């Protein structure tokens, strides 16, 4: 929509000698006006606003402590002994014959996981692994925000270091990025490139997840998270930066681009959910099954998208039961999970099975150890366990879905920052390029990834790192 209407016309008086010049001049003036109107078009942005999520009323006086405080993860004999006592009291529930992962986490395989957790998993060693990157806390809007900040150890002369904020989702954590961080901060050492694109990486924990304090007030959603993470980057001294996310991280970073586009150099996503509906979309779905090219779908889109009912309805219903619980009454189920480490592990690790590969539903072990080690999986579970953050992480669904059940309310705010999308074949839902353009107006790269699922950085760190670098390289050349 234009902000103003063009004047009806200009009146020209000209003689025969300038009959040729006037149309040319008019064309030039019209082009300049069109350029002015387009370039002057105001991009609609989400109001940044402000918030308070601390306990009690917001203090009327006094400035918030803006210090960046080093933080170290610690454990104790008491913590480990309590875990072992609870694991020893695990009550086994027999599964039906041939269940595999069709009923959820297979209880026979769960026995193996619990035995490993109790007798072989070394939490003290994993704490050392977690502490290999620098951790920090800072207070924003009344709550302590946890993040890791990793800078490259070596930067070639004349090369700029690009700040990159990476945001996790549920049931993940900042730990998902531990394998991709060295590829991004020291790419040449890992054979990815000659060091032409180098990053310093900031990975915060969403408030209510892991070592970030949980909000004490109702209503903490992705908009509040986006605002807090912008404040975090500003506090770290960054005026412009790149964003990357999947799952909730995709929505949070998208909101960040909608909120302060002038601060976002580029947005890279490995998960995109577009919930636009209507007659046009229905026609596209129907025709796409037979003539995909006619509605802008590629052959690969069609392969990932059809049969439509199976991949976009039945599979989604099967995998989204948790969403309805967490979007309505998260505390009820959450209290049980917070009390039982075995229940917590089953609830979380089941997602790392079928969200990694849908075919893992048919495997007795959920295919988990074909993609991850038990040490990696249990370390992520332990982050939830030792911080008692499973309930507050589940509440994030209620806070967002109660305001926006379709997660579509902010799609009217187009994203005009350069955007890169890595479409992994085992993602829960596939979003074709032609659909993504409805919201992401400036897609620079759209990659059909050869393998991988929902937890891209955790499962396929090299593939994701390469795609991020390719995207940033193109943006920097614009």
Describe the model.
The longest helix has 19 residues, at about 20-40. β2 and β3 (about 145-150) form a beta hairpin. About 40% of the residues are buried. Strands 1-2-3-5-4-6-7-8-9 form a nine-stranded mixed beta sheet, with helices on both faces. α12 (about 330-340) packs antiparallel against α15 (about 390-400). Helices cover about 40% and strands about 10% of the residues. The two termini are about 25 Å apart. It is an alpha/beta fold and about 475 residues long. The chain contains 18 helices and nine strands.
- H/E element sequence: HEHHHEEEHEHEHEHHHHHHHHEHEHH
Class by SSE composition: alpha/beta
Main beta sheet, described?
A: 9 strands, mixed
Which spans have pLDDT < 50 for at least 5 consecutive residues? 1-40
Distance between the termini: 27 Å
Helix content: 40-55%
Strand order of the largest sheet: 1-2-3-5-4-6-7-8-9
Cα-based radius of gyration, to the nearest Å: 25 Å
Number of continuous helical runs: 18
% residues in beta strands = 5-15%
Care to give the gist of this entry?
The protein is of the alpha/beta class. It has helices at 21-39, 77-88, 107-119, 123-130, 181-185, 222-235, 248-259, 279-288, 299-305, 308-319, 321-326, 330-339, 341-354, 374-387, 390-401, 433-436, 456-459, 461-476; strands at 69-71, 135-140, 143-150, 161-167, 198-204, 241-245, 264-269, 419-423, 443-448.
């Amino acid at each position: 929509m234009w902000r103003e209407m063009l004047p009806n016309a200009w009146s020209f008086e000209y003689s025969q000698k300038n009959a040729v010049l006037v149309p040319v001049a008019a064309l030039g003036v019209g082009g300049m006006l069109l350029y002015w109107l387009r370039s002057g078009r105001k991009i609609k942005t989400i109001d940044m606003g402000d918030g308070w999520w601390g306990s009690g009323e917001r203090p009327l006086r006094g400035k918030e402590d803006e210090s960046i405080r080093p933080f170290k993860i610690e454990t104790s004999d008491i913590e480990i002994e309590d875990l072992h006592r609870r694991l020893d009291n695990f009550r086994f529930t027999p599964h039906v014959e041939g269940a595999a992962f069709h009923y959820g986490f297979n209880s026979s395989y769960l026995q193996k996981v619990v035995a490993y957790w109790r007798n072989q998993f070394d939490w003290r060693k994993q704490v050392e692994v977690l502490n290999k990157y620098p951790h920090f806390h800072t207070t924003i809007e009344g709550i302590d925000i946890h993040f890791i900040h990793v800078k490259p150890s070596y930067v070639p002369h004349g090369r700029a270091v690009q700040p990159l904020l990476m945001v996790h989702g549920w049931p993940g954590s900042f730990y998902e990025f531990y394998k991709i961080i060295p590829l991004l901060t020291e790419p040449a050492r890992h054979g990815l490139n000659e060091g032409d694109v180098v990053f310093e990486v900031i990975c915060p924990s969403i408030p209510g997840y892991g070592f970030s304090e949980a909000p004490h007030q109702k209503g903490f959603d992705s908009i509040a998270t986006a605002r807090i993470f912008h404040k975090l980057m500003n506090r770290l001294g960054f005026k412009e930066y790149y964003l990357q996310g999947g799952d909730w991280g995709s929505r949070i970073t998208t909101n960040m681009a909608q909120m302060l586009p002038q601060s976002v150099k580029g947005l890279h996503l490995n998960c995109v959910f577009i919930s636009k509906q209507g007659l046009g979309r229905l026609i596209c779905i129907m025709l796409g099954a037979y003539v995909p090219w006619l509605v802008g779908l590629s052959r690969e889109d069609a392969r990932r998208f059809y049969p439509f009912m199976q991949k976009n309805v039945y599979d989604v219903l099967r995998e989204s039961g948790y969403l309805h619980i967490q979007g309505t009454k998260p505390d009820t189920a959450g209290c049980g999970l917070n009390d039982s480490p075995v229940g917590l592990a089953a609830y979380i690790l089941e997602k790392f099975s079928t969200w990694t590969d849908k075919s893992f539903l048919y495997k007795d072990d959920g295919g988990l150890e074909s993609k991850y080690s038990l040490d990696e999986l249990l370390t992520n579970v332990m982050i939830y366990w030792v911080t008692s953050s499973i309930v507050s992480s589940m509440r994030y669904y209620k806070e967002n879905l109660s305001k926006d059940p379709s997660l579509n309310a902010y799609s009217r705010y187009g994203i005009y920052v350069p955007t890169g999308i890595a479409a992994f074949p085992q993602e829960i839902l596939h979003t074709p390029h032609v659909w993504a353009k409805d919201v992401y107006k400036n897609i620079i790269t759209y990659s059909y990834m050869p393998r991988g699922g929902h937890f891209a950085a955790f499962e396929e760190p090299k593939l994701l790192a390469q795609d991020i670098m390719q995207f940033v390289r193109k943006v920097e050349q614009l």
